[in-house]
């Protein structure tokens, strides 16, 4: 989802919305208070790419098409979340819900969406929400919205009804089974370590929904206007910080993609556009609006769940897909070799050990081709598909139905992206990482 990922990106399990139903708190170890500031690498070069990303280096501007009206009588006025509304770790999803582009209660259902058509792959399955509202608000394309929703339904929702929650858990369709957890309950499966503003679960007593003011201030202070090169530096900082502080730091297939990818989403999704600068600019005020932060460094105040689309704001000109997130992340990896890495710390800080993608996938993807074309987006979707059976065995009797459902949804997307066939996925290679515990089971 173009959107869903910004949205999804900064996923963290968390405890952040006192009084808000469904914001799950896991019983967890105490937050780790001793922190070490990491040393951070300099980039090999700067990309100087516009805020529309490397796949749209020469953007155009059309005020009528790009204006997102959230003013009086627009039908998309800001409305604060109530006690029964779910809000979670993704600022874009929270903002879309607060403005009624997706259901205000934060639970997405098939009935709220509309099937988007793909020119090459035909009509996507009716059971998935294609999130037309996210397209209206952010210009998110189908490979992003459908891909991210499918993964959302699988990990955070209920595939029998095609629903999922952008925040905490909600009652499922089969009362005897565990309630669908929502994004807040998907740590290391969907929500991952190393995100731009949310602290790692282990460092925050299991909460993945904590806006880490250190991270936010770090990003804020990198500039007065933000670019891809700035958030690439921020992704580098967050990874270095996690490696130096979190013995359980873990990047699985989605996490490895999201750590640089969600940083890129900040730029691709939140920038404001104009005739003068069609590539877009992201100012401090706009950043604070999307993150529900007010005040100045040293006295920032974060109001959980109040993320908002600014007045007089113009979205990106073109539809943004999962493959575009992949392309920007690949650029980060050229600037900072190894910024896209699978693996984790092995129980102590500063023990980061990588997993070879070639060995993991029986040679279909390897360290060289993973960063070519659409392969990174393919890898994320296909690795998810391959990992699902083991992750859900014992939980559901009808695992076969879930696997088929997912294949029906993702099949057209992977076909459209031209993904190679993936039959081998040695998930057990993640076993040495203690942070992979909830990913593996
Ligand atoms: C700008 O967008 C509007 C609304 O989508 C469209 O009707 C119009 O033709 C576009 N103008 C140009 C010059 O493309
Ligand atoms: C977006 O850009 C336009 C054109 O420069 C400007 O008028 C408007 O105030 C900007 N919006 C925000 C929220 O900064
Ligand atoms: C792949 O991993 C397996 C199991 O860890 C190992 O035995 C094998 O040597 C590895 N192969 C390559 C090509 O790295």
TrEMBL record:
Obligatory cofactor(s): heme b
Range of residues in the leader sequence: 1-16
Lineage: superkingdom: Eukaryota
UniProt xrefs under InterPro entries: Chloroperoxidase, Chloroperoxidase-like_sf
Heme haloperoxidase family profile domain: residues covered: 74-327
Statement: the UniProt record of this protein carries the keyword Heme: yes
GO MF term list: metal ion binding; peroxidase activity
PROSITE patterns on file: HEME_HALOPEROXIDASE (PS51405)
Keywords (A to Z) from UniProt: Heme, Iron, Metal-binding, Oxidoreductase, Peroxidase, Signal
Family designation: Belongs to the chloroperoxidase family.
Protein name according to UniProt: Heme haloperoxidase family profile domain-containing protein
UniProt source species: Didymosphaeria variabile
Higher taxonomy: Eukaryota, Fungi, Dikarya, Ascomycota, Pezizomycotina
